Amino acid sequence: MMTSLLDANELPAGFSYPKGFEHIVELNLVNLEPWEIMFGSLLQARLHGTEKRYPGKGYIPFARRGDNDDVECWIAPGNQEVVIVHDFASLGYEVRRTFPHFYDWFRQAIDDLIEFDELG
């Protein structure tokens, strides 16, 4: 399954996927409604889109929220911090929230899943 993520030549120099993220993907824990880990052409389109909309920010998207335009991203090159970017927002107003590490976001994604399920 790892081949449907961004290839090493598509990732910025100095960046590699965190091991925790790779482990979550290997376990196929990728659909955490409303969040979804992105793969393939969707992931590539979001990468190129965020590069165009937010030049120089170094966002590397990996998940999207299905009920709005939020995208979870790392900041290149080697920072393990993750940010929720409200995609298509004006430059400088796009960051909604930050998390120190992937697992901090993953815990929030689980909480969002529970809340989303209880409301649905």
How does this model look, in words?
This protein has about 120 residues and is an alpha+beta fold. It is built from three helices and six strands. The protein has helices at about 20-25, 40-55, 100-120, and strands at about 30, 35, 60-65, 70-75, 80-85, 95-100. Strands 1-2-3-4-5-6 form a six-stranded antiparallel beta sheet.
Largest sheet: 6 strands, antiparallel
Q: Give the overall average pLDDT.
A: 92
Helix content: 25-40%
What series of H and E elements makes up the topology? Answer: HEEHEEEEH
Beta content: 15-25%
The radius of gyration is 14 Å
* Through-space gap between termini: 30 Å
* Helix segment tally: 3
Number of strands: 6
Shape designation: globular
Structural class: alpha+beta
Give keywords:
globular, alpha+beta, 33% helix, 120 residues
Layout of helices and strands:
Blueprint: H1 19-26, E1 31-32, E2 35-37, H2 40-53, E3 59-65, E4 70-75, E5 82-86, E6 95-99, H3 102-119
Antiparallel strand pairs: 1-2, 2-3, 3-4, 4-5, 5-6
Report a brief summary of the structure:
By secondary structure, the protein is of the alpha+beta class.
